[in-house]
Specification:
Number of helices of chain B: 15
Helix content of chain B: over 70%
Number of helices of chain A: 11
CATH architecture of chain B: Orthogonal Bundle
Oligomer: heterodimer
Distance between the termini of chain B: 21 Å
Strand content of chain A: under 5%
Shape of chain B: globular
Number of domains of chain A: 1
Structural class of chain B: mainly alpha
Largest sheet of chain A: 2 strands, antiparallel
Strand order of the largest sheet of chain A: 1-2
CATH topology of chain A: ABC transporter involved in vitamin B12 uptake, BtuC
CATH class of chain B: Mainly Alpha
Helix content of chain A: over 70%
CATH architecture of chain A: Orthogonal Bundle
Number of domains of chain B: 1
Largest interface: A-B, 41 and 40 residues
Number of strands of chain A: 2
CATH class of chain A: Mainly Alpha
CATH topology of chain B: ABC transporter involved in vitamin B12 uptake, BtuC
Distance between the termini of chain A: 39 Å
Largest sheet of chain B: 2 strands, antiparallel
Strand order of the largest sheet of chain B: 1-2
Shape of chain A: globular
Strand content of chain B: under 5%
Radius of gyration of chain A: 19 Å
Number of strands of chain B: 2
Structural class of chain A: mainly alpha
Chain lengths: 289, 318
């Protein structure tokens, strides 16, 4: 019994680490740059597919792919914000209109990135084996790659927390999240900060994609599923709250693990049920203002 | 002189529409089976885009729930197709979608902006996963067969749904409810203050627009003969409806029709030859429309007219 509980809890935490990482990126993009980026999952897919290509075609260690996926998705995010979202923001009459339009544009980006990936990689499901040997934790067995995913999520979460809390740029980001206009008046280069936030969110998605590809099969159309999970976690944690997303990720991972233990087919339905109940009862989430 | 010109111009639209409807109604008499099937798909998208625009156009609430109502219609046809005649199935599908939308609208239309959008994304996925789980756990199958109906009947019913939808949209736009919806889109708080009964109105129009989506789903299901939750509750139906309506333009009655006809025709011609590229093109169209054509294609017309009149004024002799 105890082993079963431990089993379920650890599986939940392993899943949750991944969810937390995905959601932090989206939370940064929505919370600061005000873009509900529906193409977030496509950046995850890019990270996963690029890692797969590097590992199987060029024999590069997946962990080293981090050095390629991260900067690449960062750059893509930065360029997208500098070109598309910035011009949307300057044309929009209000924040509400910008949010609606930027979300629709990100739908367009989702189509574009996903189908470019289909043209490049085709629809086949890809996978490779890396660090797949089991590790024994208190009688329950888990793949080493999943433990690696969890530690990565924790490390990135911590680094990111200190980045926001202690650095000058972090302070600028927090200021921009609170009040964009006032932040700009205080001498913060607001366009640069917003583009940085969008790019950092994209880079987190890219890194998450790399981690996912180590433990799960990947393909070109996997993105939207992760997007919806990221959105659920972000709403659970409170739209725009980064600590909330971190906690929400682990919470949803635990819920998923428990539900999967009883009714394997119902995990996704349970996520959406929680999500819908949450929106109806407490749309601001657990950490929302 | 000026007034006579504008009345003549304003007559062009209805006359063209009437001619187009006459042409469409007689289509099965002379066109090939392929054309009838092609036009049925286009009409389906026109119904989806128009009914989406009926609610989301004036209010500005971006609903991504069309796939839920459309899928509800598809599953109604799958579940009841053998048990009762087609007309009842379609009516029940419309009614079912109406009730679902009424419930969803009553619960969620007080959610503002982005919350409403993500709720509607979640709704489609929730229904899909629950149906999937139900089928796997209780019936032990995935997917169902739908009683097929001949192509001309499908076509005629889809056209009838479209005509009813056009009529409803027209009457709504002319009525004071249409104005009230418009005022909600402009400023919801102000609308409430001048006496618009905001939440009931939004909910009712949202639910009425869902009737047409459900009915369209029920009749389309008979053409596909096999459906499963992934086919029925495909979020792509929502995206396509939104894309078509926005591309065509939400400001005018004809906008979503033009957008749907153009993009649906493009889809039908591209889908077999370039299965990935056509979605890529739609992505680019969506991004470009929002960036450069905020009023959609119909938003171009007044701009062009201005441009022409300015030119004429600049060169009075020529």
């Amino acid at each position: 019994m105890l082993v079963t509980i431990l089993d379920v809890v650890i599986a939940g935490l392993l899943l949750g680490g991944l969810y937390a990482l995905i959601a932090m990126g989206l939370s940064l993009q929505y919370g600061v740059a005000r873009v509900l980026n529906v193409s977030h999952g496509e950046f995850i897919m890019l990270g996963g597919m690029i890692t797969w290509t590097l590992t199987t075609q060029f024999g590069i260690n997946p962990l080293l792919a981090l050095g390629i996926c991260g900067p690449l998705t960062f750059l893509l995010g930065y360029i997208l914000h500098k070109t598309i979202f910035r011009s949307l923001a300057s044309n929009a009459e209000s924040v509400g209109i910008f949010e609606g339009n930027s979300m629709l544009v990100s739908f367009g980006l989702m189509f574009i990135i996903q189908n470019l990936a289909l043209v490049i990689w085709g629809p086949e499901i890809r996978g490779y084996s890396y660090l797949a040997q089991p590790v024994n934790i208190g009688g329950a067995l888990f793949g080493a790659n999943r433990l690696l995913t969890l530690s990565f999520a924790l490390v990135i979460g911590l680094i990111f927390y200190f980045y926001l809390a202690r650095t000058r740029m972090g302070k600028a980001i927090r200021a921009a999240a609170q009040d964009r206009g006032a932040a700009a008046l205080m001498g913060i280069n607001i366009n640069y900060v917003l583009a940085m936030c969008f790019a950092l969110g994209a880079a987190m998605a890219g890194i998450a994609g790399m981690l996912i590809s180590m433990a799960y099969p990947v393909n070109a159309i996997m993105g939207f599923e992760y997007t919806t999970i990221a959105i659920i976690v972000v709403v659970l944690g409170g739209l725009g709250s980064i600590p909330g997303s971190f906690i929400g990720g682990f919470l949803l991972g635990l819920v998923g693990s428990v539900v999967t233990y009883y009714q394997p087919g119902l995990a996704l339905a349970a996520y959406y049920a929680i999500f819908i109940l949450l929106l109806l009862i407490r749309p601001t989430g657990i950490m929302g203002r | 002189m000026r007034t006579r010109q504008t009345t003549l111009i304003s007559l062009i639209g209805p006359v063209l529409l009437g001619l187009a409807l006459l042409l469409l109604a007689s289509l099965p008499l002379y066109a090939s089976a392929y054309t009838v099937i092609l036009v049925t798909s286009i009409l389906m998208y026109v119904v989806l885009a128009m009914s989406w625009a009926m609610f989301s156009g004036p209010t500005g609430y971006i609903s991504l729930a069309p796939a839920a109502f459309f899928g509800m219609g598809i599953y109604t046809a799958a579940a009841l197709g053998l048990k009762m005649p087609l007309a009842y199935v379609i009516l029940l599908a419309g009614l079912g979608s109406f009730c679902l939308a009424l419930l969803v609208g009553a619960l969620t239309l007080r959610l503002k902006g982005i919350y409403f959008v993500i709720f509607t994304i979640g709704l489609v996925e929730l229904i899909k996963n629950v149906v999937l789980w139900y089928e796997v756990t209780f019936t032990g199958t995935r997917g169902r067969f739908v009683v097929p109906v001949d192509n001309n009947t499908v076509y005629n019913i889809m056209l009838a749904i479209l005509v009813l939808l056009l009529l409803t949209t027209y009457l709504l736009r002319r009525s004071r409810f249409g104005l009230a919806l418009q005022s909600i889109g402009e400023d919801e708080l102000a609308a409430a203050h001048v006496g618009v009964n905001v939440n009931p109105l939004k909910t009712i129009v949202f639910a009425v627009s869902a009737i047409f989506m459900g009915a369209a789903g029920a009749i389309m299901a008979t053409r596909w003969s096999y459906v499963d939750p992934y086919i029925a509750f495909n979020p792509l139906f929502s995206f396509m409806a939104v894309l078509m309506a926005i591309f065509g333009g939400l400001g005018r009655f004809y906008g979503p029709i033009l957008g749907a006809v153009f993009i649906a025709y493009l889809e039908e011609t591209l889908i077999t030859r370039f299965p990935y590229h056509y979605m890529l093109i739609f992505g680019i169209v969506l991004v470009a429309t929002i960036l450069y054509l905020p009023g959609g294609v119909v938003g171009l017309a007044p701009k062009l007219r201005n441009w022409f009149t300015r030119r004429r004024r600049a060169h009075p002799g020529g």
